[in-house]
Amino acid sequence: QVQLVESGGGLVQTGGSLRLSCAASGRTLSMYKTGWFRQAPGKEREFVAAITGTVWNSFTYYTDSVKGRFTMSRDNAKNTVYLQMSSLKPEDTAVYYCAAGGASTGWGTQGRYDYWGQGTQVTVSS
What we know:
Helix content is 0%, strand content 52%. It is an all-beta fold. Strands 2, 4, 5, 6, 9, 10 and 11 form a 7-stranded mixed β-sheet that branches. A 4-stranded antiparallel β-sheet has the order 1-3-8-7, with no helix packed on it. β4 (33-39) and β5 form a beta hairpin.
């Protein structure tokens, strides 16, 4: 069992930056693929970024709309993953969720994740 707690959301102006954190407890996060998803008002939840692989060799994946602006990383000592978001746009406004899943495949698919955090709100004003 893995418990995930997100933090770091807030209100920021267009072009600003935020760093989201997802702290895990219960199991070592590097044993799982970990992803960030987001859900905007009136829209379905969508994939944002994921990190897979071991402590020594990890891989990151991003949806096209955030490539070059968002960076996902993992701190194995703190059992925490981060999502550094820069050049934020109003369309990035959403509740951001952290998730963890047992297999390294299916990193872009919600159904392949077993554990979810409660979400953190990110609002980008124009």
